[in-house]
Design brief:
Blueprint lengths: L1 E5 L2 E7 L1 H4 L5 H10 L1 H6 L5 E5 L5 E8 L3 E9 L16
Length: about 90
């Protein structure tokens, strides 16, 4: 678990039991999450997000707002389990 004060708001970043024991660079993920803090603090309660770790895996997390904002990392998706179709995203009209 990591506590961080961002512009006067306390933020907790935690790993769930499913990801806590996995071999991953938590400091790298903490830094990436802190780098998008503005977006996370503006996100609705329960919003899911994905951050890429230093090995190219996707960390899947959620945002929970309360007295503190809690970011939970629930899953880590290995590259061998990613089935992505590469195409440009269309902008809404």
């Amino acid at each position: 678990m990591f506590r961080y004060n961002y512009n006067g708001k306390e933020l907790i970043i935690r790993f769930t039991s499913q990801t806590k024991s996995m071999n991953l660079n938590k400091d790298d993920l903490y830094n990436k999450i802190i780098s998008i803090c503005d977006k996370i603090l503006d996100a609705d309660h329960g919003t899911s997000f994905i951050v890429e770790d230093d090995e190219g895996r996707f960390a899947v997390g959620t945002v929970q707002h309360g007295e503190l904002t809690v970011i939970s990392i629930h899953h880590l998706v290995e590259q061998t389990q990613m089935y992505l179709q590469r195409r440009e995203a269309k902008k809404p009209s």
